[in-house]
Amino acid sequence: MAKRKNVLLILSDQQRMDTVGAYGMNDICKTPNIDQLAAEGMKFNNAYTPSAICAPARASVMTGLYPHKHGVIDNFTNIKEGTPLLGECMRDAGYYCGYAGKWHVTPNKTPEECGFHDGKPFMGYGFPGSQVFPSLIFNQPPDNEPNYYELYLKENGFENIDVSNGFQGNNPALQIQEMYCKHEGPVESTIEYFVAHETNRLIDKAKEEDKPFFIWANFWGPHSPSIVPEPYYSMYNPDDIPEHPSYCDDLLDKPYGYYLSEKMWGLGDYGWKGFQQIAARYYGHCTMIDDMVGMMVQKLKDEGLYDDTIIIYSCDHGDCLGAHKLIEKGAFTFDEIYHIPMVVKGLGTEDNDSFVYLHELMPTLLDIAGVKTPAPVDGASILPLMTGEEKDNGRTEVFCEYHNHFYIGRQRMVRDLDYQLTFNESERGELYDLKKDPYQLKNVCYDPAYAEIKKEYMNKLSKYLRETNDPAGTWFHRIKEFY
Of 294, 309, 353, 432, which residue is the least packed, with the fewest Cβ within 10 Å? Predict the structure, then answer.
């Protein structure tokens, strides 16, 4: 039997698809190492996250399920007991399993309890720079002791590393989080370097084992606060970043919660100039992560493992980053946060346009391992699309969900290449004509000219709610004739 390939799954956090150069959507932000992976391999052009919130999306990778099925519906709820887990399945299939970086999958289980042999995770919300950088306002440290990043700094002579130039909104009720800071230390003292360093340590450990490895490397960034050192902090000129086409949105035809989210962050008074400052550091963060990818790739090459390793680069969700005047993610189903990058090296070499989901990585990795999923999952293995054995999975649309982040407001979304319908449980609905309005500026949900289109997509949504046994379907089906 041929030796099974190793798998390195790299997940960034809150990274916009258009910041990955291989997609050709942005000629400013540079990601040469990820681009090289795409050039040697392939990329999915229509990959979507099932939910644009960190823990629900990551738990979906672990389980292959939608959040309403695995139970992690926000950043603080747990995976349901008895749910088969990716780490356990890969370990049982004979893989050495390692984990590095941000966890944020489920608060009731550590990576070790989910099947991983080794790793130094950031548990809980888990920002490892909190209570380490003296001048940092953002205070959400890892739940675990010790803080492995802080320990790494001490062991390597990087004590007293601090941050400066913190930038935050002017809402007096939200003076608790910077959008970005300057990291006053060398690259080797950053959180991202620590994650790459840990990944390379796991590669060394895996090489000692006479079995294939599955290593899941998780960067915190470019999720805010983007804390980046030179040269990345000044790498991009804010003035060069053009205004996003949807920044002009007045949000008047959107749910009221969108307006409140924009006000909460307190960035409106800065105008687009403020978002340029944020985006420049966010882009620098993306390029720094790309360099860390290069560091891991070089390690695989140095150890003679590169050709035998499948590398998948993706993220949990994107970031509005000024789209619709919004920042980060939340109760809004815009493409900037649901449409994600997914690059695969080590299988096929032909890009694919099929609609695929982030959570389909779970059955895909088990397929690579040569084992079946132990229970039904939402979706299917996309390995045949990765290898080029299949050109099209036949999926014509995607169904995504949101439950809770800052406020409770269940949303369900169905979209294809032509239209997107969003059901907001207690707010107005949204319908966008994506061919005429790709940036989702004009909500035509209540335009009589789109009545038949709306009915068609309400029926599509109804089908998904029933098929997935979604609890949101109860209310939807009671009021859909009046919605």
Answer: 353
**450, amino acid identity:** Y
Q: Is 260 exposed, middle or buried (0-12, 13-18, 19+ CB in 10 A)?
A: middle
Q: What pairs with residue 415 in β-bridges?
A: 398, 420
The order of strands in the sheet holding 226-228 is 162-167, 180-184, 226-228
Q: What are phi and psi of 437, to 5 degrees?
A: -140, 70
Grouping H, G, I as helix, E, B as strand and the rest as coil, residue 12 is: strand
Closest among 482, 6, 426, 425 to 205, alpha carbons compared:
6
Query: Once rounded to an integer, what is the mean pLDDT over residues 77-83?
Result: 97
Among 191, 2, 214, which Cα is nearest to 98's? 214
Give the position of tokens 């939340």.
Answer: 330
For residue 26, is it left (φ>0), alpha (ψ between -120 and 50) or beta? Answer: beta
Is the confidence at residue 1, as pLDDT, over 60?
Answer: no
Q: How many CB atoms lie within 10 A of CB 150?
A: 20
Q: Where residue 2 falls among pLDDT bands split at 50, 70, 90?
A: low
* Contact status, residue 226 vs residue 192, Cβ threshold 8 Å: no
| Of 188, 141, 181, the residue nearest 162 (C-alpha) | 181
Omega of the bond prior to 186 within 30 degrees of 0, cis?
no
Length of the chain: 483
- 429 contacts 450 by C-beta, under 8 angstroms: no
Question: 21-62, pLDDT tens digit by residue?
Answer: 999 999 999 999 999 999 999 999 999 999 999 999 999 999
Token pair 């994650």 is at which residue? 195
Mean predicted confidence (pLDDT) in 439-461? 98
Beta strands in 319-406 (DSSP E): 339-340, 342-345, 352-357, 398-405
Distance CA 165, CA 161 (A): 14
pLDDT digits (tens, 9 = 90+) for 156-194: 999 899 999 999 999 999 999 999 999 999 999 999 999
Phi and psi at residue 25, to the nearest 5°:
-105, -10
Residue type, 433: D
pTM attached to this predicted model: 0.98
